[in-house]
Structure prediction request, 95 residues.
Amino acid sequence: MICATVKAGSECAFMTKSGCGFNGGSCHPIVDQCEGCQRVVDLASGRYCNSYPNPAAKWRTSVCNFASHAKASTQAQQQAKINPLKASKRSTKRK
Prediction:
């Protein structure tokens, strides 16, 4: 439905016939971490996320999964454990 509260005129998944169904009755403005994201929309009432009504909750634990400007840390790929026995066999084959 079309939003009638904060994002007036734009499509909103939380809008119902009785009003906004999100906690608090309206969307929350973006936080500092959202700067540079492609999903941020500038409206007369402020800057809001087009995908999620409460951006602060998405950034509370880690990187927002909707963020188009930030990537999650890939420490698991960088910290790949190498078997020492296989590593020693590989080094002897190369010589």
